# Entry
Amino acid sequence: MAKRKRIGKCYSREDYIHCEVEGAVINIREGLHDVTGRKVTSVEIIPDDHYAGERIWKTIPKVRNIRLVQLKKRGSF
# Structure
């Protein structure tokens, strides 16, 4: 089992950061690359939308996966 380091309500796992916040679970994966070789960070938001008897949360707009892509390196304009 992977060693976990607790940071508030976030855990650093082997290949991603797992955060438990009010209304959602957020997973962040850094150090990824797209097919052209650009650096990518992926953010996945999983709203609490399936527990009976609790208020339902949702993302607005209905986007659960966000990719941050490095377009240019600093100083290369």
Observations:
- The radius of gyration is 16 Å.
